[in-house]
Amino acid sequence: MSGSENLFLAAVLFQSTGTNHLIREIRPISGGDINEALKVTTDQHTYFVKWNTYSENLFERELHGLSLLRECGCVGVPQAYKHGQIGDRRYLVLEYLHPAPQKDHFWESFGQAIARLHQHTADYYGLDHDNHIGRLPQKNQPTSDWIDFFIENRLEVQIRLAHEKGLITTDLLESFEKLYGQLESLIPTEPASLLHGDLWGGNFMSGPGGEPYIYDPAVYYGHREMDLAFTRLFGGFEPAFYEAYDQQYPLEPGFEERADLYNLYPMLVHVNLFGPSYLTGIRRTLKLFL
User: Fold this and answer.
1) 279-289 and 170-180 helices cross at what angle (nearest 10)?
2) How far apart are CA 159 and CA 234, in angstroms?
3) Active-site choice (198, 216, 227, 260)
4) Which residues contact 105 (CB under 8 A, 6 or more apart)?
5) Which end of the chain has fewer CB atoms within 10 angstroms, the N or the C?
6) Do 107 and 97 form a contact (C-beta atoms < 8 A)?
7) Is the dihedral of CA 131, 73, 213, 93 positive or negative?
8) Which of 3.30.70.20, 3.30.200.20, 3.40.50.12780, 3.40.50.300 is the CATH number of 3-95?
């Protein structure tokens, strides 16, 4: 790293912790497509620092989401120190999680932890502010009805964006309109649970002590099956995770079939982030339910 990078990181850590740090090592962290990410080892601690130059409130919202999850005390969540800005670079400083081999019964523990998270509820679906899913804005306008929230705050926002980009056609818009009329009969009523919001295989790890940790959230209060559907989108979660979850907080029958419905949202997000190749899966799901 250059001298200017060292000065930037030293200033970031001082703003975040209130103390001066002697930086001993800086290592780039791969895996994200949104921010620059670094493991920063100092004479006092090891930090995870990420930054970008384009988003005004991305890290503010992420810090708030991490704090909500951490306050729950249900599952491991990295400590968030501070977000801020130096020059044109906006940053977030987190605890660095040292990877460790999974402890015995890791997946059972993880499933139980997410079930406990989902037992923290609110009297509305949504959140008191909007946040982000990846680098896209995520609307969280509170409402008392899950179906309305799912349509207006999740599906329609992404559909409108994709339509503006010329990525989806009129026939697909018509298919979604037909689906909306069926959702009430397809989705069981559930309380508004505290959700991670982006719970795929890239957003958890085996951290200190071999315990499950989650990060990079898109937090809101929603239907708990949304989180579980996310875990199935790209795989990576063992059967013991679902078995332990269901023992702790049983699901209504038929979740496996409903999961594709919920995953229309992340698939639309992927259309808007990465292009129309994800439309094939969306069309397949719509065909299943129409």
Assistant:
1) 40
2) 21
3) 198
4) 240
5) C
6) no
7) positive
8) 3.30.200.20
One DSSP character per residue, 188-252 reads: ----EEEE-S--SGGGEEE-GGG-EEE-S---EEE-HHHHHHHHHHS----HHHHHHHHHHSPPP
Per this entry, what is the length of the chain? Answer: 290
Two domains, one topology: 3-95 and 106-289: no
Residue 59 burial class via C-beta count within 10 angstroms: exposed 0-12, middle 13-18, buried 19 and up: buried
SS3 of 261, please? helix
Distance between first and last Cα of the chain: 55
Q: What is the pTM of this model?
A: 0.94
Q: Is 198 assigned a catalytic role?
A: yes
pLDDT of residue 55: 75
What are the tens digits of pLDDT across the range 3-51? 678 888 999 999 999 999 999 999 998 756 678 899 999 999 999 999 9
Residue 28: Cβ-neighbour burial (10 angstroms; 0-12, 13-18, 19+): exposed
Give per-residue pLDDT as tens, 153-180. Answer: 999 999 999 999 999 999 999 999 999 9
What would you measure as the largest C-alpha separation in the chain, in angstroms? 61
Euclidean distance between CA atoms 97 and 78, whole angstroms:
7
Domain extent listing, the chain: 3-95, 106-289
Domain 106-289 has CATH 3.90.1200.10: yes
Q: DSSP 3-state assignment of 120?
A: coil
CA-CA distance, 97 to 46, in Å (whole number)? 9
Tell me the backbone φ, ψ of residue 132, rounded to 5 degrees: -140, 150
